[in-house]
């Protein structure tokens, strides 16, 4: 989309840039007034993530984390990402459906890795 043809996009770009600058630089003389206005800029009109998507008590969130780990491991090992994915997802879904009270433990087990970005 060409922002010069859509004034609303230009305003959104300016607001996003001001927010990014304020968050990056923190509260200082330059950003103080911007930070004061951020709640009015983003309140009610932005796309804010729904935290229910990462609730470890839900099957979807647990399955998505396990899938992310599975795909990352396959990528690290230079294996085709989609080979066997249907069977993997079916087995994970079946297991999580049979053991709903064990989802948080399942997440914890799947977060143990040699890769530093998986260790929470």
Structure overview:
Mean pLDDT is 74; it is low at 115-120. Helix 3 (59-76) runs antiparallel to helix 4 (85-98) and helix 3 runs parallel beside helix 5 (103-110). The chain has helices spanning 7-25, 32-42, 59-76, 85-98, 103-110. 3% of the residues are buried. The longest helix is centred in the N-terminal third of the chain and has 19 residues, at 7-25. By secondary structure, the protein is mainly α.
Labels describing this entry:
single chain; 120 residues; mainly alpha; 5 helices; 0% strand; elongated; disordered C terminus
Q: Determine Rg (CA atoms, Å).
A: 21 Å
- Mean pLDDT comes to 74
Which structural class is indicated by helix and strand composition?
mainly alpha
Q: Tell me the overall shape.
A: elongated
Q: Which residues sit in consecutive blocks of at least 5 with pLDDT less than 50?
A: 115-120
The string of secondary-structure elements, in order, is HHHHH
Helix content: 55-70%
Strand percentage, roughly?
under 5%
For the secondary structure, the number of strands is 0
Helix segment tally: 5
Secondary structure blueprint with pairings:
Blueprint: H1 7-25, H2 32-42, H3 59-76, H4 85-98, H5 103-110
Helix pairs in contact: 1-2, 3-4, 3-5
Summarize this, please?
The protein is mainly alpha-helical and 120 residues long. It is 58% helix and 0% strand.
């Amino acid at each position: 989309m060409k922002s010069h043809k859509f004034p609303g996009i230009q305003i959104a770009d300016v607001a996003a840039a001001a927010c990014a600058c304020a968050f990056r630089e923190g509260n200082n003389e330059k950003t103080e007034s911007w930070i004061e206005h951020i709640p009015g800029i983003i309140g009610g009109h932005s796309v804010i993530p729904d935290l229910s998507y990462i609730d470890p008590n839900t099957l979807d969130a647990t399955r998505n984390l396990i899938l992310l780990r599975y795909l990352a491991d396959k990528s690290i090992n230079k294996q085709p990402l989609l080979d066997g994915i249907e069977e993997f997802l079916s087995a994970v879904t079946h297991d999580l459906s049979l053991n709903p009270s064990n989802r948080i433990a399942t997440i914890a087990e799947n977060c143990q890795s040699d890769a530093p970005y998986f260790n929470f």
